[in-house]
Design a protein that fits this description.
The protein has about 90 residues and is mainly α. The protein has one domain. Helix content is about 65%, strand content about 0%. It contains 4 helices and no strands. The radius of gyration is 19 Å and the shape is elongated. Bound molecules: zinc ion. The site of zinc ion has 5 residues, from α4.
């Protein structure tokens, strides 16, 4: 079993819960999960679940955008570092 999956509360399962209670803090994916989602290191089924949550949760959407930015900046830095080293060798 996936250790990160959570059992849904009874009021969600029997349909008596208000939609807002589905968005309780406990239903947010962890930052680690969102980071993996942003860097595409996730199975398609789990990704679909996260994507569905993101549709309803601007907070988590913001977090994923942030992780995307970090990843892009990191790759950019890495590329520049390699170019810097390469130009040093040329001299
Ligand atoms: Zn969320």
């Amino acid at each position: 079993m996936d250790p990160e999956s959570k059992t849904l509360p009874a009021e969600v399962l029997d349909g008596s819960a208000k939609p807002s209670s589905l968005l309780a803090d406990t239903s947010h994916p962890t930052e680690r999960v969102l980071a993996r989602f942003a860097s595409n290191e996730m199975g398609p089924q789990r990704k679909k679940l996260i994507a569905r949550h993101l549709e309803t949760c601007p907070d988590c959407r913001k977090a994923v955008t942030r992780f995307h930015d970090i990843g892009r900046r990191y790759r950019d830095l890495e590329r520049r570092a390699i170019q810097h080293v390469a130009s040093g060798i040329d001299r």
